[in-house]
Amino acid sequence: MNSTRPITDWLPITKKEIEQRGWEELDVILISGDAYVDHPAFGPAVIGRIIEAAGYRVAIIPQPNWQDDLRDFKKFGKPRLFFGVTSGCMDSMVNHYTANKRKRSTDAYTPGGKAGFRPDYATREYCKILKNLYPDVPIIIGGIEASLRRVTHYDYWADTLYPSILEQSGADLLVYGMGEQPLHEILRLMDRGVPLESLRTIPQTGFLINKDESLPKNKNWKDVKIASHEECLRDKISFASNFKIIEQESNKVKARRILQKVDKKTLVINPPYPPMTENEIDQSFDLEYTRLPHPKYKKRGSIPAYEMIKFSINMHRGCFGGCSFCTISAHQGKFIASRSEESILKEVESVTNMPDFKGYISDLGGPSANMYRMKGKVQEICDKCSAPSCIHPVVCHNLDTSHQPLTEIYKKVDANPNVKNAFVSSGIRYDLLVKEYNKKGDDKDMEKYMDQLVSKHLSGRMKVAPEHTSDETLHIMRKPSFRFFHEFKKRYDRLNKKHGKDQPLIPYFISSHPGSKEEDMAHLACETKDMGFKLEQVQGFTPTPMTVATIIYYTGVHPYNLNPIYTAKSKIERAAQHLFFFWYKPENQGKIKDKLTHIKRYDMVEKLLGRQRKEGTGKRIGKSRANRAKKNRHGRGGNER
């Protein structure tokens, strides 16, 4: 498949490819923890293509060996402008370890799915090597690992607080969030000869200055100081209090500059850029990608993450859900940046021309599949807002939740003669489709969207994420009451019946989330059993940097009100909660009975274990949720860079 295209269609990753271009020097060298896939869902490819489109000579060093003589880091010499470093599309620790801290045996971003091709804390380790080899060359870090570790953060795997990744890595500049907007300005100024240490008023960047240095001046920015790293180490409440400020400033249209003392330095986090315009996001997606892995990997096996999304279309970025356990808004922001219809349909046409395309678009989606073009009706109201979620505890009265633009896109993709089916496999935000919850939403609009979705765009099932059944836990999660899931299911079942379809609803759930107790998990098991589910699309809560739930896990209090919240932390507590998902397995039933008897919930013993369904009569859904943490493109991490 790859051999039909010249190697120069890809960004260079070998010395030979650079020589073929006649280049003697590179302007920028990118270091990535992922294999190089030239596709708009892979951040290093996007950044590389943007640099190329701006007229610069760029190469990628994907998955360099950090354990030998470091020849991979040396092969291109030093770039004229800077090294750009990313761990890849995932935080390397999420990539490497399960919620129980067990080492994963696979890596979805490596040929053949093989593990072991990137270090733990990859961004930090790559930077240390580069600083040792080329101490005079600037290093700019970005991607989800850098973005979510930009301030003092709790690291679950080390069970400790770490300072900003800038302090740990020695990098010179950090770009957080989706990097296109700051990247253009960085390239423009550095090419004019402005040294990196002078680039201190570019939005959406972070850096360290010595305590005796004066702060860069920007008359349009106000400052907010947060507790120092050392104070956070001494006092968990100070650390928790920091988070409220960080989250709110990350989701404001007009944010303040964040300042934090770290040892004898000051960390400066500049406010973010405004959400990308339609034209800006189109430019990023319309670049000349091959949409293929580099030919170098042909004999090493397929790249699982690529195989999952190679025929998919990402239509927008951002998520206004603000779920407590999710990093999407921390990285991509809560405001939705949508592509134009023209850009989306152009990419659909590109997919249909791929050599092995069989007529099926695997996903028309985004971080949440049904937020395309949704935004505030009156921008001035959004400009003043600091709420982390637009739909919790209620749907904002200013939010336009019309699904009509999305319904029309689906119909136009269907009209392409080369498309047999275009599926929606990204998670649906079901509460936007429940009139009882989305009170100002148009019920007829919801019905039209759901009718189109159910009749033509599901590949045999539909994924939704109620996450829990306990209202108390759901409130902490910033999710709606489970009763609204029942209402959604009624509409879904009715439309399936209307179209003669049998498409199971696949609900996702989390155990051991802050606020969830064993009794809550028992309720979850009973309620979902009553609904006919045998749950397998489940996961244990994994604390990741820069989420509300992680702050609660570490500190024991909610960062917004400092009230204490119970969290299952020990292996025994976490295993006990997870056990209730699998009540139907004979080997678990004795343990579950003992637990329920101990808390005198004999009613649940009877309800959950009293009379078992005959084998095969319950709905058993899904295969595994082990890959859920890897879905950073659309699910809980977005198209990360």
Description:
The chain is α/β, with parallel strands linked by helices and 641 residues long. The protein folds into 2 domains: 218 residues, 3-Layer(aba) Sandwich (Rossmann fold), CATH 3.40.50.280; 320 residues, Alpha-Beta Horseshoe (pyruvate-formate lyase- activating enzyme). Helices cover 34% and strands 14% of the residues. It is built from 24 helices and 26 strands. The strands form 9 sheets. The protein has a 9-stranded mixed β-sheet, sandwiched between helices. β6 and β7 form a beta hairpin. The longest helix is centred in the C-terminal third of the chain and has 16 residues. The two termini are 27 Å apart. The C terminus is likely disordered.
Q: What sort of overall outline do the alpha carbons produce when their principal axes are compared? A: globular
CATH architecture of the largest domain: Alpha-Beta Horseshoe
CATH homologous superfamily designation of the largest domain: tm_1862 like domain
**Largest sheet, strands/sense/barrel:** 9 strands, mixed
CATH class of the largest domain: Alpha Beta
Question: What would you call the quaternary organization?
Answer: single chain
Count of DSSP strands = 26
Number of helices: 24
